[in-house]
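Appendix C reproduces, verbatim, an entry submitted by the partner laboratory led by Prof. M.T., so that reviewers can inspect both the input and the predicted structure.
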Amino acid sequence: ELDWSTAEGCAILKGLLREADVVVENTRPDMIESLGLGYDELHNLNPGLIVASVSDFGDTGPYSSWISTPLVNLALAGHLYLSGDENGEPLMLPGFQADYLAGLHVYIGVTMALWSRSDTGEGQQVQVATLESLGALHQFTTVMETYSGLVRRRHGNRFDGSGYGTYPLTMLPCSDGYVAFAAATNSQWEQLCVMIGRSDLLDRPEFETGLDRRSHADEIDEILIHWLKDKTKLEVFSEAAGTFSVPVAPMYDLSEVMSDPQYVERGLWVTYDHPVSGEITHPTVPFAMSETRPSFGRAPTLGEQNAEILSPYIN
């Protein structure tokens, strides 16, 4: 715990930064400058320091002095316009996707800066604007509009309603929940028809191509829902993915995600006993390395490590 807005706290912080590799800050650009902790000052203090600055809009542009929220950023980035049913209102995405994505870009930018420093010996500033992180996430949606002139619209559970779609790419109900279908190729469609006992559909010209099937999505949904009505989502998953190699998956809630045997065997989740919060389960890291085994532990309580970290810098 360090109140770096005070003169004493700022002095202690600068002592820490003289020996640091990376500092991440998410204050408003004008605030950090007013405290004498702008990038130029920090670079003079420690030329090898990498300063990762995270803000909603960056330090330039007409919105740079404003503050925001995930909902506002998602709206400005065009993602809410694409979320929801075709004839319905835009919908909010779950969780704090805007913040998560900005954090991911901080990680990537800092990693690149560390690589650069290994060659030059110099640190640098990494600026991440949450809005830009979201704006860059549109994938082919921007290419469709700028190159092909096709404006993508909301399409609900039916992936890609802009004319380039295939089918079934959707989510449908079964006896105990929902399953997601992603039969994107003709061979997957053929296997799907065999699986549900409807090989006759392969002879129907209205289902011949992905675009044909997308144009007849209502009829395909009706056929699939009839097949699904007496099956559980895990029965469908086992039969589709395990036997017929059709990309189908159950729609999990979080408790089902955390207990799924694939995650469990791979060791994604770890449980800590925190002295304040109690027992908490967290993900570890979503990759495995053959020679490096990261260690994990609980987060410290507020001020728990003050003496250990700050005492060398206190006069």
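The CA atoms of residues 218 and 224 lie 10 Å apart. Additional entries are available on request from the coordinating office.
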